[in-house]
Structure prediction request, 943 residues.
Amino acid sequence: MYRASTPPALVLGTLLLLADAPALADSANFELSGKLYTKWMYKNDDSRGCLSLSNPFWPDNIGGSNGVCSEFELNIKGRVSKYVTTGVRIQSRWGALWQSWWENGDVRWDYPNDSLFHENTSGESMGLNHAQYMKLRGVFIRAALPLPSVRWVHFGASDFGMWNEWTIGKLRYIDRDNGNGVLFEGAIDDNYLRYHFGAIALPKLFVGPRWNTGLRDSDPLAGFWGQDWAYAVKLESTPMEDLDVKLITTYIHDWEADRNDPDNTGISDRNRGADRAIDWEPRFRALNATLDAKYAPSALNMLSVSGLLALAHNNVNREYATNGVAFDQGFSPVIFPLDEDGNPRAANSMAGKLLVEFFDPLEVGLSFKLEYFNIGSEFNSIFGSRREADVLLTDGILSTGFVDGGQLPTLNLANEFVDFDEPWFESIIGWHGATGRVDYENGPLSTNLEYTLITYNTNAQDRDVDNQYPDFLYTDGFTDIQSYTADFDYANIFDRGRDPRSVYAQYKERLTHIVVLKGDYLLPVGDNFVVQTKLKYVNDGDNRRLGNPNDNYRGHMYLGWLNLKYQFTDELQTRLGYELQYWDENLRSGSQETGFYDYDTTKHTGRFGLTYNFGGLTFNYMLEYFHKDQDRDRPGTYDQSWRVWRSKASVEAAW
Amino acid sequence: MRSFSSYSALLSLALGLGTVGCKAGGASGGASPGSVALTDPTGDDNGPGNYLYPTDQVYKPGSFDLTAFEVVPKGDTVEFRLTVKSRIEDPWDSKAWGGNGFSVQMAFIHIDTDHAPGSGATTGLPGTNVRFAPEEAWDKVVIISPQGPTRVNSEVDAKANELKAKVVVPRITRAAGRTLIAIVDAAQLGGLPQPGWGYQVLMQSNEGFPDKTDLLTRKVNEFEGQHRFGGGTDYDNDPHAIDILMPPGKGGADEVKSQHEALSKYNKEATSPAPEDLALVPMIYPGQ
Prediction:
């Protein structure tokens, strides 16, 4: 272990010397790989940093849109024996600008409270993350131990890709080796019963009420996270050649110290009941399970049928967890439900989906897909995938032409720590409906047409969004996904427009239609000239309070996108695209008391991009102009415009 | 009773669509002279018989189990279609890295256009660890990769520059259902496919961070890992091919056996293998 003040170059040099040292006869078993990545970001604003949207809720001073940042990673894998492999990743911390020449990570010098020195380049200014320190990550040992039926035992870091989106999701890329656990993998019979078992250390952030596992949020005596774990088991079987069946069950247990334990509340007097031991009490417990099956008959190669049933149980101990709905303005990753008598209860819900696919059954290039989905109104996968996964066939509501999207069964989405060109993810809690899609492939043409109908199990009247059901800060947080003006607009403080309707609302009677047509066509000119297009229409209606005809929301959202890709040389590809969006929203914003008012929004987006690869170097560049006008009828509001230029470039090399 | 193909023809006429995927048994049938349709048995996605998939969930059962291979000439272009047993997915969001709509699969289609000894290449591309007989040397190889064309070209430049003239990076690469589709200009192949051309397909897996000796291929090790195949060796002597075509290309059980035999014949003791230490894979000459 080295101290943070140890020069990274010295550490790296030492490691390289060790790897190459002739005295180490087994250096062939020492596998090294590295990667350098540099990103440029520019935007016509005064933010500073290399990440479009950083942590929105407390200042971490790495977010911003003007700057150049570099990072380095060193991956080391060792083959201890034929039975044991090891791995570690040493990664520099992200956040320092190229201008941060002398940052050393020391605390900022502001004595005697002189604000002049709060942010400077003296080397004692911006905090450790701006010193590009090397952090130990991704530490694991993997062993084929001679245990009956066990194929592998894995100790340490994993991205948890062995479970699924509905239970314990694969960690997002930037978190890929932050999670640790002890994992067993084996088979009683390779066909009939394969298994995974695991005990996974809960991250002290995000898996639980208020996005934590007990950071003293309700009681300074209770904060305790050293014994918070998730336990998981997966059983897989292939009972017949064409059928795969999988059962995954995960259980999360967040302990706190018993706040009433005598050893926690006073002197260790035996007469008080003190015994030099502290009891624990559960703060949060969650059970998520899925049973899924896939049938792909060999005799009918065109057919695939897959289905999934899911169960979610979330149980919050209000004695130890602060009610995020009541105390965080409706922004909470769990619900706090009460029974009919007003007593706290667990949230229990089921979910299911069934996908039937016919791959080119007529042999004319036409494929057909039909998916039914039904997600319970209180379903929540707290440790499920937060982004970078997609469980439904539909294109969804949020995605555009330039910005992709996905649907996930959790309130615990992670649409932060992203750049403006990255996908966005929406919660499908309560979604009940179906998607039909026709794909057509013929030579240079690839296209598909989708229709999706969504009704909502979360439709309700006079739902308690003050204490029980989160309605995501000001009811409409994830709205226009392109026009975040700064970190602090994550919760839509400045009203970016377009109402996606929150998962829960006080009054909700919602119905959504989605129609999407996508196509790619290789033009018969030039060497490699591809035109891509997407047309999308979302008809979103919410009658809100039944009996009040003056609060009925009607959103008509139109999108047209055209993108041209041309490959000039073997190494250089360019892209040029344009997107038009128009949102005609009647009675979008307001309240039952003040009435609701109309919004009209027009957006034009143009993008130019290129990719250049040569000799192991990859360079990417993107320039975007984003032009948006929003007309608001609501009294006391003003119309808004966005005239935003922004760009992102990166150069990387891995070896 | 009408067959599916009858309905297909009717529907094509009604919709004004060009017929795709018309089956041609070998090079015969009513299709273009150079069209090819071969079948590969299911359940042989284990290389020499003992290869195991990586353990990560993205490697779904059947993902590398080649079941069909088609060559469809269309005007001045040629469409190659590889079908696998499992629906092709895009778990790594290839759009985000300029990819082609799938993530995990990769394939090399080797083509012998002259069937002449001494003509063509007998070595596999870097990372495949196979060789070809001199009389079945390949003249072109079509790379089906989820990586964008500039990345593939860059890798070829860096790792197989001496073979670059023989490498064909398709104008379009995409996935549809269980099928990988690549469209190339016939001129890139030296002309439209002809009867007598030979083919061999190596199923591999896309590795975005390949070893310096591997052309975007995923390694096979002695033990499987989260992103490594298992069942081979930790050296580059074992064939890094999960499934291949075997003569006669009709999908029979005998082809499973012959594949296992062919891919097993490598020198397991050679830690720095010479070409002759590698497994020899055959070409298939449809109709011959």
User: Anything to note?
Assistant: The two ends of chain A are 25 Å apart (CA to CA). Chain A touches chain B through 67 residues (CB under 8 Å).
